[in-house]
Design a protein that fits this description.
mainly beta, 1 helix, 4-stranded mixed β-sheet, 12 strands
Length: 196
């Protein structure tokens, strides 16, 4: 059982640089949901945004009525309402969740999160497992709120809503098996490489 609250959040992108974003449970990206293939999950989503929303479980096999596309296969989650999603996980892998109600605005404001489904029987152990969401914001000088109407001319590039030099290193030991999961829901491609 998981609980997500869609809400406005203040996020420090780098030391002293705070923006007004939207996210889940006080953060952008939202908390990583982790479960095991075969689990039945129940997710309570409460909307504290100034507009209606929904949650789409990107790439997950589930009943049509749980897919989270507001106005198509579920009603919108209105302000101060809670909607319950419930489904059985029938695959494993790296997935995401994000809104499908005014999604261009809501995702541009930072609403997204990882949904990791671990295999019922892992092939081999992983020592370190990292999740990275590249994202791009456009924030006009002198303001703190992203402008969701800007589609390509971004001025802040982030990993997990942190801008360099505030990004965290991926610390591992020699000989460890490492998995790096990358999910991009921004409006542009984001080429990256691992330094060193």
């Amino acid at each position: 059982e998981f609980r997500l609250t869609a809400e406005p959040v203040k996020r420090e992108l780098a030391k002293g640089m705070i923006i007004n974003a939207w996210g889940y449970n006080g953060s952008t990206p939202g908390p990583t949901i982790e479960a095991v293939e075969g689990d039945r999950v129940r997710i309570f989503v409460t909307n504290k945004l100034p507009e209606r929303t929904s949650v789409h479980w990107h790439g997950i096999f589930l009943p049509n009525g749980m897919d989270g596309v507001a106005g198509l296969n579920q009603p919108h989650i209105e302000k101060n309402e809670t909607y319950v999603y419930e489904f059985t996980l029938r695959q494993h892998g790296t997935h995401m969740y994000h809104p499908h109600a005014d999604e261009m605005v809501q995702m541009a404001m930072g609403m997204m999160g990882f949904f990791i489904i671990h295999p019922e029987r892992p092939e081999r152990p992983i020592d370190r497992d990292f999740c990275i969401f590249p994202h791009m914001f456009f924030i006009r000088p002198g303001t703190k709120t992203p402008d969701p109407s800007v589609m390509l001319d971004f001025n802040l590039f982030t990993f997990n809503a942190r801008a360099c030099p505030g990004t965290a290193p991926l610390v591992v030991k020699t000989g460890q098996r490492v998995r790096v999961r990358i999910a991009n829901l921004s409006m542009d491609s984001h080429p990256i490489h691992l330094h060193g």
